[in-house]
């Protein structure tokens, strides 16, 4: 399969240069080789929505159970970046369920109003999906800010994936 992909790419590249469309190669390689993350699996679009109840002691999943990672080439990723972009007091992204084979960094910046989580290590799509599904959102403040939280996800296997977003509605 890889030989066929390389052959098709070479034919496409030659035809593009012959016609003066060298920039098409960049578009081809970028759109065909990047992973695609779909946080809600069979739902519409690639984003996910979940509700968190103020005062709850149960964290909520931030990736749907049927989420997918796809790519026309490759089956491994180098890392995943997850960012809660509008941090409020007492927000947490829990990583306790993530397999220890991942290198995990989890930093909170009140100055930048975000939480950044990075899962690193060359692992399969399936491993990364399992890790992403293990992530949880919680806020232990029973009177927390009701602003909907936005959590972005981006994968990398060389080129970056699409950015998919989970919205956590605070009820």
Number of helices: 3
Given as residue ranges, the uncertain stretches (5+ residues, pLDDT < 50) are 4-18, 20-31
Task: Compute the average pLDDT.
Answer: 87
Q: What overall form do the CA principal axes indicate?
A: globular
Write the layout of secondary structure elements.
Layout: H1 2-18, H2 23-33, E1 36-38, E2 48-52, E3 60-61, E4 68-70, E5 76-84, E6 91-94, E7 103-109, E8 114-124, H3 125-134, E9 136-139, E10 149-156, E11 164-170
Helix pairs in contact: 1-2
Descriptors:
single chain; about 170 residues; alpha+beta; six-stranded mixed sheet; three-stranded antiparallel sheet; 3 helices; about 20% helix; about 35% strand
Textual characterization of the structure:
The chain contains three helices and eleven strands. With 171 residues, it is α+β, with helices and mostly antiparallel strands. It has a six-stranded mixed beta sheet with strand order 2-11-10-5-8-7. The chain has a three-stranded antiparallel beta sheet with strand order 3-9-6, with no helix packed on it. Strand 7 and strand 8 form a beta hairpin. Helix 1 runs antiparallel to helix 2. It is globular.
Short description:
22% of the residues lie in helices and 37% in strands. The chain is an alpha+beta fold.
């Amino acid at each position: 399969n890889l030989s066929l992909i390389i052959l098709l790419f070479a034919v496409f590249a030659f035809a593009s240069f012959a016609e003066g469309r060298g920039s098409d190669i960049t578009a081809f390689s970028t759109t065909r080789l990047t992973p695609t993350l779909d946080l809600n699996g069979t739902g519409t679009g690639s984003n996910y929505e979940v509700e968190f109840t103020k005062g709850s002691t149960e964290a909520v999943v931030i990736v749907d159970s049927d989420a997918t990672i796809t790519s026309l080439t490759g089956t491994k990723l180098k890392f995943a970046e997850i960012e809660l972009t509008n941090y409020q007091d007492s927000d947490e992204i829990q990583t306790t369920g993530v397999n220890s084979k991942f290198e995990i960094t989890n930093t909170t910046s009140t100055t930048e109003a975000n939480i950044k989580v990075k899962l690193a290590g060359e692992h399969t799509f399936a491993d990364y999906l399992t890790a992403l599904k293990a992530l949880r959102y919680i806020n232990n403040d029973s009177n927390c800010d009701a602003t909907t939280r936005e959590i972005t996800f981006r994968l990398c296997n060389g080129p970056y994936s699409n950015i998919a977003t989970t919205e956590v509605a605070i009820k």
